[in-house]
Specification:
alpha/beta; Ribosomal Protein L15, Chain: K, domain 2; Four Helix Bundle (Hemerythrin (Met), subunit A); 4-stranded mixed sheet; 45% helix; globular
Length: 293
């Protein structure tokens, strides 16, 4: 299992040689492929060989491509992440609506709980109590839309009254970048487990290729929020710091690991819960700190 996040910022040619990623820029560098977890191509002046792309997908290495403004635009995912994808696709299509509704309820309650905890840490005691009151009102499939009500209160606090998630502010740029990095991590785990990213448990947008990942990411967004708020305005290294979220020290199921590996365990637990019709089997991270393991 890889542990490195490799970021290519400048003009270079990437190829594979003897199971190594070869980076041919001003100087030639190499990185052992089995050590790489994520490869981020930040520059449009980078070229890659087809043989390298094939090796990256075989090893389930997450590859994120950025546009001319260095914002994540697309990612590389294999068609088949497991040897029995046909069986798993059939399982996914047969997931019962009742268990999907219950799991979505559990996910949203966890998200609101973490948002309330974050607001309390920031000194918004009254708003934190309000979000805690919403927890008892979250119904199956969140038919009462407690998530939406909580989000309005939450973002009014962390963004400031009158500001919107659609504003072109530095904070929103950090949030968008961080959410995209997290989403790609979930896409990788879903695909590696042999399931489709398009078929979600609540999200059902025909134009969204990542409905399932959009479901799973919800309780993890607060981690990105905390990181973005900790940065100084217009920090030139904000992208590197947002990517580093995946390396945060995380406690899950009583064991210390990285957030990236915790995402794997959490994703598989949700899939297991869906297959077993038991929402109580979901495993959430118990604690995440902004320190590397």
């Amino acid at each position: 299992m890889g542990f490195r996040t490799v970021i290519i910022k400048n003009r270079a040619k990437l190829e594979v040689r003897l199971n190594n990623l070869i980076i041919r820029g001003e100087q030639e560098k190499k990185v052992f492929l089995d050590e790489i977890n994520t490869l981020i191509i930040q520059s449009t002046a980078v070229s890659l060989t087809a043989s390298l792309l094939c090796e990256l997908t075989k090893k389930n290495i997450k590859v994120i491509f950025c546009d001319e403004k260095h914002n994540p635009q697309s990612e590389l995912l294999p068609y088949y992440g497991a040897h029995n994808t046909t069986k798993r696709y059939k399982e996914q299509f047969l997931w019962d609506n009742t268990i999907k509704s219950k799991i979505w309820q559990v996910i949203i309650k966890k998200k609101i709980d973490l948002q309330a905890e974050h607001l309390l840490e920031k000194g918004y005691k009254e708003q934190s109590l309000l979000l805690n009151s919403y927890l008892t009102e979250v119904a199956e499939n969140d038919i009462t839309n407690r998530e939406g009500h909580a989000a309005k209160v939450y973002f009014n606090c962390i963004l400031g009254m009158g500001n919107s998630r659609k504003d072109s502010s530095f904070l929103n740029a950090c949030l968008n970048y961080g959410y995209t990095i997290l989403l790609s991590a979930f896409n990788r785990e879903i695909t590696a487990s042999g399931y489709l990213t398009q078929i979600g448990i609540w999200h059902d947008n025909e134009f969204n290729q990542f409905n399932f990942a959009c479901d799973l990411i919800e309780p993890f967004r607060v981690i990105v929020d905390k990181t973005a708020l900790s940065l100084e305005n217009n920090d030139k290294d904000f992208k590197k710091k947002m990517v580093n979220v995946l390396n945060y020290k995380t406690l899950i199921d009583g064991k210390n690991t990285t957030l990236d590996l915790a995402i794997r365990q959490y994703t598989r637990s949700v899939i297991h819960s869906l297959n077993q019709n038991n929402e109580k089997l979901i495993i959430f991270p118990e604690k995440v700190t902004q320190d590397e393991l």
